[in-house]
Amino acid sequence: MTNRPLPGSAPPPGPSAEPPSREGGPDRARPGATALPAARRGAGSGPAKGASPAPVRTAARPGRRGGGGRKSPLARGGWTPWLYLAPALVVIGGLLVYPVYQLGLISFLEYTQAQVSGGEPATFQGFGNYATLFGDAQFWQVLLATVLFAGACVVSTLGVGCALAVLLTRVRAVPRLALMLAALGAWATPAVTGSTVWLLLFDPDFGPVNRILGLGDHSWTYGRYSAFALVLLEVVWCSFPFVMVTVYAGIRAVPAEVLEAASLDGASQWRIWRSVLAPMLRPILVVVTIQSVIWDFKVFTQIYVMTGGGGIAGQNLVLNVYAYQKAFASSQYSLGSAIGVVMLLILLAVTLVYLRLIRRQGEEL
């Protein structure tokens, strides 16, 4: 016999099963009410029939207040960060922005020796200097030679620098110190001095290299490709220490347990570098690659000193030496400025494309 509650009395404690509605299913959600999870509805823990549902509270999202959105970094930090950066920005603006502005301005003018001496006024040429430059067949030959030469220098510098960085982690303290001092000595040598020393080493009459190799009086700077190869060796010699020291510092920061685990798995040194070290050193490799591209693309001193200003009939010209000849040897300053602007745009494009490719791979720089 079932005890029924008296009229007006409260229902007995405990869950009460509610019969399904006549529409053939559970109670429909009322407008404005938040539906409970299915597991809780199945457990019979809902309110008793006829009782009003409890109000549902919605948790406020963190970081948002009723008055408005988030504050900007400038509003939170004020002008203090910009005050710290102001001296550096002023120096960069004076040493970089203004010269670039002058370079671009002269490239749109007719600016020769007559305008420099004040004999004639400078006239606006628009893109006339660029049309003259792009219509010159020698410019495209020099541009191709510059791209190929810079690419060979970058690949060789990165290869030698990374290989020696790995070697530094394998040798003892004394050989490591000797190699570091030798590399830093090459890095600290001025470009003019280093170029002159390499010329003496490969001199056809007194150079020891020809005697050791038995080449007699072979001239390394006479042929186009041999001259480029000689300059490439000098560029790599004075550039690899930066890559070596930077990559070596990154390798030392890699946990030793990771390298030991790879060695225990039977990985070779090349596999450890390709599958373990290179991915972990990706941000460092990005920096040294961009620096090498910029330095090797605008190389000037080595070409000018070792090939005598560009080689026989300009066979070893690169863009920087080509711009120097147009601006100062021919007094066509506006044309030399146009070459400088083209070089700046090429380097910016290469850097931005490389960084974009790295970002697409999900790497944080």
UniProtKB/TrEMBL annotation:
Biased composition (Pro residues): 8-18
Comp. bias intervals (Basic and acidic residues): 20-30
Gene3D superfamilies for this protein: MetI-like
Start and end residues of each stretch annotated as Disordered: 1-73
Residue intervals of the ABC transmembrane type-1 domain: 143-354
One Pfam family recorded for the sequence: BPD_transp_1
TM helices/strands, residue ranges: 82-101, 139-167, 179-202, 222-251, 272-295, 301-323, 335-355
Domain of life where this protein originates: Bacteria
Protein name according to UniProt: N,N'-diacetylchitobiose transport system permease protein
